[in-house]
Write a structure and sequence with these properties.
Shape: globular
Oligomer: single chain
Number of strands: 17
Radius of gyration: 20 Å
Number of helices: 9
């Protein structure tokens, strides 16, 4: 097989490294790749958002399988474009990929289908956000809130606000100052959950769900879980605080219901479905869904 991997980070390096061990991999390409990947595959000067260029390359080089690393091309519709040209590609099409492309879509789906998650409020304007923040802190001044940009922000569009002032500032940064661009057109305000967080990624064909072992990454920028969230700085597995029975419960109560829900909407999900989960005192809760392999997970 001639295989193309799209992306240029640690995630894609891991994918290429493993694919290179397969006797079926006759030739490996990576777009754009990086210096480490270049030792294992031929790096192509095409960016992940160049959907037409990537499709043309796959067609001209007779690529047998394309594997997409980052979320942006999936949400932009690379799978739809490849499949329209008869090219085999691994990942969800643009409609089901909205489970990561829009946090509001994901939260509405979870509520509609009974998938456990934090209480949340959708805000379409900064005035609406300020009003909700003030109401919640008036009801409980000791609480914390999580402010999330609705769209994709490379894993960084999440701010944990421990005071009302911090929450108002986060809303202003996202919706007025446009810290995350169009991703902040709408925001989600959530109750702040406490507990152990983990990532569970699963392969799915739209009906069956096969989960990988849980992993846990280091989200905060400083030692001892201080500072703002990052996109993740290293991960490890196994996760001692997520025993096999807890991981199995997450598959049954979160991942399988999500795949069934998307199928019921008429937009079957095929590819990797990633659930960010938290073990709280009330039980498992879903923090987010992603439509691809995690990086660094």
């Amino acid at each position: 097989m001639r295989i193309l991997v799209i992306g240029g980070g640690g995630r894609e390096h891991a994918l290429v490294w493993k694919l290179a061990q397969s006797p079926h991999a006759e030739r490996l390409y990576c777009a754009p790749g990086n210096a480490g990947i270049a030792r294992l595959a031929e790096c192509i000067n095409l960016k992940p958002n160049d959907l037409e260029g990537l499709a043309n390359f796959a067609a001209n080089q007779k690529i047998d399988l394309t594997i997409v690393g980052p979320e942006a091309p999936l949400i932009a519709g690379i799978v739809d474009r490849f499949e329209a040209r008869g090219l085999r590609i691994f990942g969800p099409s643009t409609d089901p990929a909205q489970i990561e492309g829009s946090k509001i879509f994901a939260k509405d789906l979870m509520v509609q289908y009974g998938i456990p998650t934090a209480e949340f409020w959708r805000c379409d304007s900064v005035e609406e956000a300020h009003a909700r923040i003030h109401t919640e802190f008036t009801l409980n001044p000791q609480r914390s809130l999580v402010v999330k940009a609705d769209g994709i922000a490379a894993g960084k569009g999440v701010i944990i606000a421990q005071t009302e002032e911090e929450a108002h500032t986060a809303a202003e940064q996202m919706m007025v100052q446009r810290a995350f661009g169009d991703a902040g057109d709408r925001i989600v305000i959530e109750e702040c959950l406490t507990g152990e967080e983990a990532s569970i990624m699963a392969f799915t064909d739209g009906e069956n769900v096969v989960a990988m072992p849980p992993s846990q990454d280091h989200k905060r920028v400083f030692d001892n879980d201080f500072g703002p969230n990052t996109g993740g700085m290293g991960a490890y597995s196994p996760v001692s605080v997520i025993p096999p029975n807890t991981a199995a419960e997450a598959v049954e109560t979160i991942l399988k219901p999500a795949v069934a829900a998307i199928r019921e909407l008429g937009i079957p999900y095929q590819g990797i479905l990633y659930a960010g989960i938290m073990v709280t005192e009330e039980g498992l809760k879903t923090l987010e869904f992603n439509c691809r392999f995690g990086d660094p997970e």
